[in-house]
User: Fold these one by one.
Assistant:
Number 1:
Amino acid sequence: MLNEYNPHLEYKGGELYLEGLSLKALAEQFGTPLYLYSASYIRERLRAYKKAFPEALICYAVKANFNPHIIALAKEEGAGADIVSGGELYASLKAGIEPSKIVYAGVGKTLRELEYAISSDILMFNVESFMELDVLDELAGKLGRKVRIAIRVNPDVDPKTHPYISTGMKKSKFGVDIKTAKKEYEYAGRLKNLQVVGIHCHIGSQILDVSPYIEAAQKVVELYYELVRSGFEIEYIDMGGGLGIKYSPDQSNPEPADLAEAILPAIKDTKAKLILEPGRSVVGNGGVLLTQVQFLKDKGHKHFVIVDAGMNDLVRPAMYSAYHHIVPVEKKERPYVKTDVVGPVCETGDFLALDRELPLVERGEYLAVLSAGAYGFAMSSHYNLRPKACEVLVEKGSYRVIRERESYEYIIG
Ligand SMILES: *Cc1c(COP(=O)(O)O)cnc(C)c1O
């Protein structure tokens, strides 16, 4: 069953292994909380995208996991980068990603960030408002550059995911209404330092049923033809990211090929090159968070397992009530009990699982929190002055520390 999350994750002789390495041994060597990433899995997912979309430019969404070694892995597999900040631009360039493979979205790009991206000559700015068009045009003029842009449109489809990560609906802050987008395009077309080259949309994240993509692609392609008829040369259709992953046992892990079936029929007759921006579906199930049981505690009918990973390490359960599957690193015969797995942080919202049927675990043993490769470490914080976790990349029986555990001195100076 675990191999449905990641084929490189398995129990052998009652112990959990990732790419042939014992998770218990790694936890003992590096301490916990510990993020482990499976390089083979991440490579395989990127290759699956390339195979399903042979003509497309795959821009890895850096925000899902910005560890420089993970970005470098994406680069090795030929991916570009989808960025949402100056920091992500810096990290992507440093990892060797060519500026001609970088696209930049975000509703609140600052002057400094825009200037940095213009000077870096990235492929395309995914612009989210009229005002951003003006600012970008003025800045490009000052820098003596012509800037390639797409306008991020909101196709108003319901991605059937958590409201905080639905981004393509009318009421969200992202993009412009697709019905009136032509106005923005005509406006942008008159700005002399901008070159309109694309259409961008990103409808949301953790989308397990690909049908909203069919509708989004059809609406985007309608706009494409409308723009082409008006004389625009649309070279790129950027359909964003958002493909979901298996978090809970009842969910599936959709393949890039499923996404291709949804998107390609609408796109294939256009002359535009397709861009995709997958994040979660590349790295999500490539990662595991290891944590150690500190204490057990029973209060009334409640059984608490208190672990050393908190909401500062993995905020998704607290923030989105997200489900992460949790398994003990050592598998033994034992009874199951309804358990709250909670962290050490001083917030009631600091939990990894609530009312979960789990084996009765003991103090000192290790638990593996699955599907932690995306929006895990990337969303971690220092809350309660807790140093951020160590990150280790494993591949075919070998391992590499890709980020040391932080020290108090590092944080406080
Ligand atoms: C977050 C984001 C992505 C990646 O989303 P995933 O769900 O991780 O695939 C892609 N494009 C944009 C514009 C984003 O904001």
Number 2:
Amino acid sequence: MLQTPYYLIDKSKLLQNMEKIAIVREKSGAKALLALKCFATWSVFDFMRDYMDGTTSSSLNEVRLGHERFGKETHAYSVAYADYEIDEVVSHADKIIFNSIGQLQRFENQSSAITRGLRLNPGVSSSSFDLADPARPFSRLGEWDQKQVEPVMDMITGFMIHNNCENRDFALFDRMLGDIEEKFAPLLKKAEWVSLGGGIHFTGDDYPVDQFAERLKRFSGKYGVQVYLEPGEASITKSTTLETTVLDTLYNGKNLVVVDSSIEAHMLDLLIYRENAKVHPNQGPHRAMVCGKSCLAGDIFGEFDFPQEVKVGDRISFQDAAGYTMVKKNWFNGVKMPAIAIRELDGSLRTVREFHYTDYEQSLS
Ligand SMILES: *Cc1c(COP(=O)(O)O)cnc(C)c1O
């Protein structure tokens, strides 16, 4: 049996998201590109490829991975490209979306053979977290002044607008798209394609998928544009767990449990956004604080309720360990890196990657 810790991707759960994405594509005519910055575990790309149109990226490494491991349509985007990487970026992409007019002009010649676009920033967003708010004051993410964009329209054929963030509220999405239309209508009319970015939680329970698809279709028809979506979290949400084993228990005013993992090393996003991990069912009379094994005092997954008293050797499974989690894993404290396993549709378990001392050693020099 595979040693913990490991990330476990459950294909039957992934399939539920894929099927919703397929419905939205079919009903709206929009294309869906996986955002690799959220999830880049390429062992399941063969599976996801049938339900999505390709990938989008935020760096040279990502655009190359998308091209080589996923295939289909490959969009390149980055906040800023360096001179030494632009040719390689272009060689892997069907479309390149520049973050600024400055970058578009700087790389005009090198990018002339592929479709080009520009990121627009409408100045409104659904994010309540300053850290993740593309429309935060003085944001560097995209151009906002229509007058500056009009003169470069002959160099581009479309736009990317990413201003949703974990947005579960269709009415809010609808309203913000209305804001975008109001602000940028003359530009949208000249475009051939518009990517509405990610951050829309349309694979979540109870999301009004039909209304969403209808809204996208209406937008597409009004401006005569191919709409793209760039779902990251929505593609893989609830598909993956982090499997751990309890190594020790202590008592210090609360029941403490130490597992063979670390929130800082293996679920860093939760620490950054000050959220607790999730366990299911999180019900029962035995409350315990589950802690990581790194030296960081605040390496804590959260406090949970268990049906039985937690003992050394018990397994604890943390939910929702795919998005912004596997891509951020790191070697802090030299904690054993979680392996990666896939539960196939027939229920069988397949280990696709294990990490060893040499991976740790080679991560530095
Ligand atoms: C982060 C990002 C995405 C994916 O966002 P999710 O919230 O994971 O859906 C898509 N497009 C762009 C431009 C992004 O920066």
Number 3:
Amino acid sequence: MKPHDHAAAFGTADGELRVGGMPLSRLAARVGSTPFFAYDRGLLDRRIDELRAAFPERLELSYAMKANPMPAIVQHLANRVDRIDVASGLELQAALDTTMRSERISFAGPGKSPAEIRQAVASGIIVELESRTEFDRVIAAGDELGLTPNVAIRVNPDFAVKGSGMRMGGGPQQFGIDAEQVPAVLRDYAAAGVNVLGFHVFAGSQNLAAAVIAEAQRRTVDLVSSLAEHLATPVRYLNLGGGFGIPYVEKDQPLELQLVADNLHDLVDGPVAERMPEATPVIELGRYLVGECGVYVTRVLDRKDSRGTTFLVVDGGMHHQLAASGNFGQAIRRNHPLVLGNHVGRPLTERATVVGCLCTPLDLLGDHVELPEAEIGDLVVIFQAGAYGLTASPTAFLGHPAPAEVIV
Ligand SMILES: *Cc1c(COP(=O)(O)O)cnc(C)c1O
């Protein structure tokens, strides 16, 4: 996808990008400072509507809030999705501050501390167990608090998902309990007084190949159906993971959602209904829900020519939006989509290299990108910035102030 396509999704008027309907220069004035992140509520809602329309009705949608834990985003989504998944004690507190009921919050991730597990058991959420140690800690917390913990087993599957940006299942993993160990674990802990609701399999992140995601979901349902025979109670919770990707660089094509959704209809109406009739199937998404609704807005501080290359130096950089600099899991650095947000329709008359304000060559936001001729004060906008932006970046590096975040 080209930068122009991303701009069209937000909308433009009088040569300006709009976010939440507001022209960018006015929004910048409203925010009062650059750089900043802005998230478009309408685009968030549109994404959820698309998913709801495509998915089976019985399938529940969970928001993996580590993708964007801004409280206003989490609050907004809490009213629109069915569940929230957290990955730390702090995220748990933020999720509990929303209207989401605690039994609809899950907590995944390796290395949950005894204190975090105690918080989780006290709040009544679903703890997704990654190891025997976590099982022991949950039991200890339940005994101490006089509560029956709710848990699900996170399973490291016996298959790997190819073509995913970040693989998190299959082979040796710090995530989950290996599928072949699960029967013994269930047997050993059968009398532990813990409410085992079901299973969770998360195979990887940033996957744009619908056929690969569909295959992983089929194999997950197969795997869980066979593990279910080792559980004393019916499976009530079936978290099929997610990992839906979004297009970052020009050659990326958007995920074919309908293909994934058709497969989910087959699974939910077929093997899930037949073999696990009491299970609530869940899809858990972070990046796909929020990534495309967000922009990172910076202002041009300097413009200089160096031996034939035009440099635009902006007031933001990789300390806020690490991924755009290629430092977050990209093998080859490619440009994330960017435009001059206050001159969207203008002809692209020059090639410029857009760099951030950090004193390192790594702070490169756009390498020889086609732009209209830019001046000091213009607004450079980076798209696809709604997920793994601010909280996934080294904000303390060089000690610049934190950017504002707004939802419009
Ligand atoms: C990170 C994570 C997610 C979210 O992944 P996305 O690729 O952002 O959708 C979902 N589930 C688990 C268990 C995770 O660790």
